[in-house]
Amino acid sequence: MSKIVLKKQLSNDVYLMKLACPLIAEERKAGQFVILQLNNEYGERIPLTIADANEQEGTITIIFQVVGKTTTDLAHMNEGDEITTVVGPLGNPTHIENFGTVVCVGGGIGVAPMHPIAKAFKEAGNHVITIIGARTKDLIILEDEMKEIADELIVCTDDGSYGRKALVTEPLKEICERDPQPNRVIAIGPPIMMKFCSETTRPYKVYTEVSLNTIMVDVTGMCGGCRVNVGDEVKFVCVDGPEFDGHKVDFDNMMARLNSYKDIEQEKHECNLDKQAKAKQSS
């Protein structure tokens, strides 16, 4: 059991929660994630990146967007409520060292997992350029937190309601054309955004890492739900990732696999426990 010690709504359907998880807070590193399950018997298992941690408080911070039943149920929970299962830290941490200039590109909810990574790169002595983007101003999150970390911050919105009217790939291309070029790019966000960030940097031969968020079930690599093609190899995001060379990821195959689960993921179905409770009430 992990108690919710803080809940904050960041935008219309994006929430921040601090969870009491002292052991995870002590062990986690930038880029790692946890698996949440709201009910042990019937609950869906969902991966969420650790957006921040406080060892002294014994807390981790998660930021999530409401997209299906489990995240809807999670959004309805409040401070003091307990989440049945929180497992982590999972996945391989981001490789952090002083590369020189690092560009951190976060799209939408992807800004949340980017925050600890950008912070770690800055603490390692890198010159950090951060690009954050969203469809509209209301969907921009963690701008102030990113501003504290970044040497240069660029904010983009698709509709021009805030910051620069552009997709994140536009300033990314301009930065790749600078002399000297950036030494490394990391992109986190929707799959299509990460695909085009990788295609933007490819002609410039700037190494680009992406953090994938696929369907996960057992988090051991055995179920195959998070399978992705990376170059000539088959990888499993839960144990081999979540970060990979963006120039090698087969994004089209990954997006096709994700879309095959889309209707099920977004369906707000009635869970088995609810059905059982209603059946008892009517009997």
Write out key terms for the chains shown.
single chain; 283 residues; alpha/beta; Elongation Factor Tu (Ef-tu), domain 3; Rossmann fold; 7-stranded mixed sheet; 10 helices; 29% helix; globular
Explained architecture:
The chain is α/β, with parallel strands linked by helices and 283 residues long. The chain is built from ten helices and 16 strands. It has helices at 22-27, 69-75, 111-123, 143-149, 169-176, 191-201, 237-240, 251-260, 262-266, 272-282, and strands at residues 2-11, 14-20, 33-37, 45-54, 59-65, 82-83, 85-90, 101-107, 127-134, 152-157, 164-165, 184-188, 208-211, 227-230, 233-236, 243-245. Helix 5 (169-176) packs parallel to helix 6 (191-201).
Strand order of the largest sheet: 6-1-2-5-4-3-7
- Report the count of strand segments: 16
The N- to C-terminal Cα distance equals: 33 Å
Helix content: 25-40%
In short:
With 283 residues, this protein is an alpha/beta fold.
Task: Spell out the blueprint of helices and strands.
Layout: E1 2-11, E2 14-20, H1 22-27, E3 33-37, E4 45-54, E5 59-65, H2 69-75, E6 82-83, E7 85-90, E8 101-107, H3 111-123, E9 127-134, H4 143-149, E10 152-157, E11 164-165, H5 169-176, E12 184-188, H6 191-201, E13 208-211, E14 227-230, E15 233-236, H7 237-240, E16 243-245, H8 251-260, H9 262-266, H10 272-282
Parallel strand pairs: 8-9, 8-12, 9-10, 10-11, 12-13
Antiparallel strand pairs: 1-2, 1-6, 2-5, 3-4, 3-7, 4-5, 13-16, 14-15
